Each structure stands twice: as C-alpha cells, then as structure tokens.
Backbone:
C-alpha cells in the first residue's frame, strides 16, 4: 500500500517547479559567460544509447537505461545488471562505460568505469613544423549507492574520481552526483531530479589556474500511457556553463520486445546564431531502437549532426542472478 504523502513534500515539489518554470531569460544568457571555461566537459555526455535516443532525457528514468546515469535508479532492484556502452563521437573521439549493479546485504550498489579516447594529435612548433604526435584521454571510476525510502520515493548518490591527460599534462577531480525519483499518485507518472558533478578539480593541468567542473541541475518527468505502448519524457537542464536546455523524448514499445525512440533538444543561443537555426529545436534530433531477448537488452542511438559528424551509441545490458 502506498504511504500517505506528506503535504510538505507536495509544497517542496511545487516550489521547485515554480522556481524552474519562472526562471527568466537573463539567467539563461548569463550562463553563456561560462561557455568553454570548464574542464572535464565529457562529464556532460551520456553514453547510454536508450537515453540518448529519446532526447537524452534521464532525470525520471527509473528503468534499466537509468542505471548508473540517474543516481537513484539503482535503488529497489532485486536482480543484478551488467551494462556496457560504446560511443563513436566526433572525429576520432570515442568513449564508453562498463558498469555493474547489485543488491548486497540489503544495500543497492553499483560500480562504473568510464573512459574517453580523443585519438592522436599532431604536435607542431610555433612555425608549424611537425614535431611528432601525442594522445589525450580521460578515465573515471564511480560508486553508486541508492535507497528506496518508501514505495514511491527513491534516492541515490554517485561518488566519482576522474583523471585526465593531454600530452604530458594531467588533471584529477572528484565529484558527487545526487538523484531522486518520486512516483506521485497519478497513473504512469514518474518525476525526478539530479544534481550532477558537484565537486572539485583537485589537480589542474597547470599550476596557478583553477579548473572547475561542468555542474548542472536536471529536473524531468516520465509519463507512460495507460492504453497505448507509448512513454513520453521531458527534461529541463540548468548547466553552469551554457544556456538552459529543454529536452523531449518518446519511446514506443512493440510487445515489450522491440522499442523505437526519438527525441529532440533545444539549442543554446550561440548554437542558434552559429547554425542560423530558424527555430530553437531545428538541428538537435535523436533516433534509435532497442531489442529485448530474454535477459539481454540492446539499444542503439543515432544523433545526426550536419556541421560535424554523426554520433552512434550502443548499449548492451544483461540481467544476472
């Protein structure tokens, strides 16, 4: 039986919604002042293909796609899961993750290893003389702990340590991600929120310069229709280095075996001017599909980009006893 929800929780949720809904455009444009000033920017990327194909909406994902992405999604799961993702990004950049979640001694725990490979670069002198090549890459290790506080409320946290190397220059950072998932008394509705990359760069690439992490707050909702195999997602993202981002996604389930995804994300003011977009949503679209066979779940995401290169993501999940 669902526990009675305190009025104070409704008041807090309503207050948060009002603050977000009525944030003026001055805030959004002031955020642009921080564009390009943060390090470890790969922390803003999502490697999970199922999430990426549906507009990259993840705040209210209480399913297997949300594991090790939304910190609270690990809570309350009886079975273990192995999850692997690979992303072919712009030019030679590749990144991915390997994760495992399980309930151990009544504790919901997950581990995740992330990597980024930027490929090989040409080292030149001030006169453009070729001096050789160098590589760049980043790694991260994450511990995820979740708890089902009530039947309708989950909370979770992820603690991460990251390292980065560009030629002979290195940097390290530590961060915490916080998440909450709430199921209100409305059929098929889930709401969620995350605060990502709350932490500090413990060692910068060079002395005398203080790097900062790309922190962002995300709030979102998920609605599964009662009489149709369709689920809608929506997120609002508040980054500390860009404009507010709005994301929407759709998932269509065919006999719970085949899944079709599509979504879209808003552009920043800088992107709109750069691409001369006619509307705020004119260039960032996402597509994909998923297949479930017994204990296996395969997802693929396709993110077209006319200016650079198309992005391809794949994720394989396996339920384990």
Residues:
């Amino acid at each position: 039986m669902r526990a009675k929800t305190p009025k104070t929780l409704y008041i807090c949720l309503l207050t948060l919604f009002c603050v977000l809904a009525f944030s003026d455009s001055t805030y959004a444009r002031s955020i642009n002042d921080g564009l390009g000033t943060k390090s470890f920017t790969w922390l803003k990327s999502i490697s999970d293909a199922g999430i990426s194909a549906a507009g990259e909406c993840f705040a209210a994902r209480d399913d297997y796609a949300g594991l090790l992405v939304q910190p609270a999604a690990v809570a309350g799961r009886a079975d273990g899961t192995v999850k692997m993702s690979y992303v072919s990004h712009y030019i030679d950049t590749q990144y991915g993750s390997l994760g495992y979640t399980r309930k151990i001694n009544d504790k919901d725990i997950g581990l995740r290893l992330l990597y980024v490979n930027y490929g090989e670069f040409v080292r030149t002198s001030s006169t453009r003389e070729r001096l050789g090549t160098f590589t760049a890459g980043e790694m991260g290790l994450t511990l995820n702990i979740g708890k089902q506080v009530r039947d309708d409320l989950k909370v979770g946290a992820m603690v991460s340590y990251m390292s980065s190397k560009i030629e002979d220059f290195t940097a390290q950072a530590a961060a915490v991600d916080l998440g909450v998932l709430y199921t209100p008394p409305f059929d098929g509705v889930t709401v969620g929120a995350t605060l990502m990359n709350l932490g500090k760069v413990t060692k910068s690439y060079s002395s005398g310069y203080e790097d900062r992490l790309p922190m962002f707050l995300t709030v979102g909702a998920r609605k599964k229709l009662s009489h149709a195999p369709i689920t809608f997602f929506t997120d609002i993202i508040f980054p500390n280095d860009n404009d507010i981002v709005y994301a929407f996604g759709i998932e269509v389930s065919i006999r719970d075996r085949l899944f079709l995804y599509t979504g879209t994300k808003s552009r920043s003011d800088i992107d709109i001017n750069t691409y001369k977009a006619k509307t705020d949503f004119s260039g960032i679209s996402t597509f994909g599909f998923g297949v479930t066979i017994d204990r296996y779940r395969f997802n693929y995401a396709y993110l077209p980009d006319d200016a650079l290169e198309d992005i391809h993501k794949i994720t394989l999940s396996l339920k384990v006893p």
Observations:
- Residues 7-320 form a domain with the Porin fold (CATH 2.40.160.60).
